[in-house]
Amino acid sequence: MRRIIVLFVGLLCLVSKIYANETEDSEKQFVGVPFIFSSQDWSTAIGGSGLLRHAGQPQAVLFGTAIVSKNKSWLGYLNLDNLIMPNMKQWLISISAIEANFSETNYYVPGNPKFIDEQAGSNDSNPDDYVRTSGRESRYKVKFKYILPIGNGRQGALASMAQQDKNSFQKSRIWNPLQSGQTSLEFQPFYERQVLGDKAKTNDSNQAMGMRFIVDYDNRNSTQLPTRGSELSFTLSHDWGSSSRPKWTTWEGAYSKFLNIGANNFMRQQVIAFNAWLADTPTWNDTTTINGTQQYQRPPSFAANSLGGWNRLRGYENNRFYDRSAVSYSLEYRVMPQWQPLNNLPVIGAYNIPWWQWTLFIDAGRVADTFSLSQLHSHMKYSIGGGIRFDVEGVTVRTEIASSKEDTEFRVFVNQPF
User: Measured between alpha carbons, how far is 285 from 15 in angstroms, rounded to an integer?
Assistant: First the structure.
């Protein structure tokens, strides 16, 4: 097992807890979770996460994480969700930023002298074809999300959010954007940067900057705990390039479906969840002149269509595979046991944990240097795994272990994978 992360949540004392004014549900306005863990990449690290509700507006949420480690790696993450501007009731604005420094970690990029004739990150690449080096990474994006005034969005963004939170499954049975669900258009300026150590020999630009345009129809009966309905989205990403980097375009489509298969004496909820994802880079073989040399109009590896990591092919390392095109499938069995002892446990019981969910899943996918459905569905990679997910003060915390032919990965993350 190449990477093992063990979290000991609650070993450190909370610096502070701020409670909201008395409300009907006595919901905490601020909650923090400290942690300490150890891994190959981080050595011994400590950190904490905090969630602030009503961050300037009743519906706005501010979430942040900070981690520092013994080997001088560090990470900072900040996300402000669901801001509404005056007289713009159909719009939601979110801002997120990540800054990180890794002293030593695996990057599947050219530079390993043992594999000079192989394309690192390709579907057939050797699992040892990586460079272990330092990395400085930045990711910033702003989401301008317009909720169309149809279906659940007729009364504005706030009403649409409230309707999804009601978990009403009747309307989720109707696949009709004019009658149900939330249909949105999203404009997402982004900036990403990755500077690697001298061992990496990639010719990629170390920056990506452009715009994503997303069309989404969300007919799920819940955003955190869906049991019925579906979500369909299409994303177009474009970097206009500069005098030092080529322009490029990618697109991706995703579909998720949720089926409620009922309850029994042991399980109060059983759900089959399915996700399919397809992506391509239509500019892959186009060229442009940068500083007098011809370069392909391709995104750098960290912005390319990739598999491996938190949400796709979870039994592989982050960005293990990347290429022109990619396909991914995930099938999950999610159950919510009748038995839920967490609120009665020491330390953990200090937090509001209304539910936990056990999962079993299988992932399949591959990348390819051409956009061919037949090639994308041959010699696919697979991973299997399971995990436990918790609602901790309104945040879905995900713990999973997944195995593939190359590795076994244990991760702790937030939000459902789809």
Answer: 54
Q: How many Å apart are CA 352 and CA 284, to the nearest integer? A: 48
User: CB under 8 Å to 32, separation ≥6 — which residues?
Assistant: 14, 15, 16, 17, 48, 49, 50, 51
Residue 271, H or E segment: strand 267-280
As separate numbers, helices (DSSP H) first and strands (DSSP E) second, the chain gives 3, 20
| Per-residue pLDDT reduced to its tens digit, 307-341 | 999 999 999 999 999 999 999 999 999 999 998 88
- Provide the token pair at 153: 């969005």
What does DSSP say about strands 408-414 and 395-403: parallel, antiparallel, or unpaired?
A: antiparallel
352: left (phi over 0), alpha (psi -120 to 50) or beta: beta
Helix (H) or strand (E) holding 162: helix 157-165
| 8 Å CB contact between 231 and 222 | no
If residue 161 lies in a helix (H) or strand (E), which one and from where to where?
A: helix 157-165
The answer to whether the CB of 153 falls within 8 A of the CB of 90 is yes
The pair of structure tokens assigned to 155 is 């009364």
Q: Distance (Å, rounded) from C-alpha 376 to C-alpha 360?
A: 25
Is residue 289 exposed (0-12), middle (13-18) or buried (19+ Cβ within 10 Å)? Answer: exposed
Q: Is the pTM of this model over 0.85?
A: yes
219's tokens? 């007919």
